[in-house]
Design a protein that fits this description.
322 residues; alpha/beta; Rossmann fold; Dihydrodipicolinate Reductase, domain 2; 10-stranded mixed beta sheet; 15 strands; globular; NAD(P)-bd_dom_sf; Gfo/Idh/MocA-like_OxRdtase_N
Amino acid sequence: MLNAGVLGAGHLGKIHLKLLNESTKYNLVGFYDADSKASRKIEEELGYKSFHTMETLIDACDVVDVVTPTIHHFYCAEKVVKAGKHLFIEKPITHTVEEAQKLLELAKEQGVKGQVGHVERFNPAFMGVKDMMDNPMFIEAHRLAEFNPRGTDVSVVLDLMIHDIDAILSVVQSPVKNVYASGVSVISETPDIANARIEFENGCVANLTASRISMKKMRKARFFQRDAYISVDFLEKKVEVVKMKDAPKNPDDFAMILTNAEGVKKQIYFDNPDIHPNNAILDELETFADAINNNTEPVVSLAQGAQALTVAMQVIENFKTL
């Protein structure tokens, strides 16, 4: 078992503490949080050991899980990596692209592994259809949330849209060519609702909308490719897969047949991939343990986290704000 500790014991940090404590692949040694009063309360009520300094926690670990506010990610991660410890870090990887690049270089120099907490990669709906995605050419994603002041320390792009940016980058195997974006600040100092159009060199286009001032929650993405339409509901963990194939010469009475303008007949059919319920956060933590133990590439590498941040920053830089 790998000795693991958590830096940052806020809302998400406590979830990570609980899951690491339950995992059969980690031995939770404890946590460090700058708020000593909150740390004592967590130690008394939940029984996790509180370390008095970040350095003493890092020294006691093989793996350190950074769940601090984004602005502190690089400061904490740098200490972890320089100490030669493996790093799990919540998304976005760092506050700036420059910090992300420095972290990549440090991890390479120190020979440690790192994984970024892009949890939607482990969503069972996305996992159930990812292998069906074959060169999607148009993607549309909507990620809507009710207002929560807890997420407003960063832009809605870094808080919400980056989930879809990372998922899309993982299935579109082409460099980004152009980014167009607009955003509106309603409650916060930074945009609370944003739309981005990402164009890839292979011709694929992704249209993303993210909002943190909606009346209802929605986390959906639709992928269109040759002879297939794939819909992923990240919130409800459901998928819809509609495929087309050349129509048989003698279709049965219930077959759905379409004829295009050129007279080519296609049969529409539905695919129902297996969706296996899981705890996505536990899965991402445990696959990182597997990557360390087996010396394999993490599912969401530091390089991929940096790429998602780079595109997210392009979105922010291209904002036409109202």
